[in-house]
Amino acid sequence: MTNTISKNYNCIIVEDEPIAAEILENFVSKDPELHLVGKCADAVYASSLLSIHDVDLMFLDLHLPVVKGFDFLRKIKNPPFVIVTTAYHQYAVEGYELDIADYLMKPIPYDRFQTAVGKFKHLIEAEEALLEVAERDYIFISSGKKQIKIILQDIFYIESLREYINIHTKMETLTFKMPISKMEENLNPKMFVRIHKSYIVSRSKIEVKSASIIQVNGKKLPVGRTFKPTLEL
């Protein structure tokens, strides 16, 4: 008997029209892999849901009261995947610039909803496969269709630049589209330490250490206040 791991993706609905919200909730309930953790009618409540729950997917209406959908989305740090729902065509270009998973026009047919959710699942599964720890001494990171092998001992430090990271190694600097938190999860804490919201350093490469600065490969990096206790261990 083979065990299949059933996937469970947390989602929220941000929609101020009750009928549209009800239709989406009904569609979500038909997909056993989608788990609705909350629905709300405005950006303030949506922010609260995102802080309470680990959300994978957000169905976001653009015409919300007070704060509009895209303005809200721009303010979210590490946003979940987003499927936009709207009655207006003119926002499509702006949506794709914000890396929207898909764009649903109201009224939403069920088969079109299924297509959008299929796109989301493909994207999230690709992200989950992004970091594959093969052995203790190296890591594979996907870049487009290529898998790039990085020897962990070659890494000096990792730097976050918004949704990208730069991995500074002995040979070169490599850039990947990935949050630094995702990289941190996959590194051995005995080898690497987060010193700042924007930096992870190799413990063995630290040359100078003080309360406010870490020097690695001649580069002085700031120590974030909240990360100081970790460094003292």
Automatic annotation (TrEMBL):
The modification 4-aspartylphosphate is found at residue 61. Residues 10-121 form the Response regulatory domain. Pfam families: LytTR, Response_reg. InterPro entries: CheY-like_superfamily, LytR-like, LytTR_DNA-bd_dom, Sig_transdc_resp-reg_receiver. PROSITE patterns: HTH_LYTTR, RESPONSE_REGULATORY. Keywords: DNA-binding, Phosphoprotein. Residues 139-207 form the HTH LytTR-type domain. One of its GO terms (molecular function) is phosphorelay response regulator activity. The keyword Transport does not apply. This is DNA-binding response regulator. It comes from Chryseobacterium pennipullorum.
